[in-house]
Specification:
This protein has about 60 residues and is mainly α. Helices cover about 55% and strands about 5% of the residues.
């Protein structure tokens, strides 16, 4: 996740913005940024956010 913000709250904001504006799925976002999807999910779960596929956002 070297291209992404290190701070979890900034990562959350960046990821949700990108998902909202540019990527229809978390999988596509992760492929573009060369991020392990499970690692991203795990990082954001540490600050009590889960990925909701129906809204394509971490909530």
């Amino acid at each position: 996740m070297s291209q992404l913000p290190k701070d979890p709250v900034m990562l959350l904001s960046f990821t949700n913005t990108q998902l909202r504006d540019h990527y229809p799925t978390l999988e596509e976002f992760c492929k573009t940024y060369f991020v392990d999807e499970n690692e991203l999910i795990g990082t954001l779960e540490k600050i009590d956010y889960e990925y909701d596929q129906t809204v394509n956002q971490f909530v």
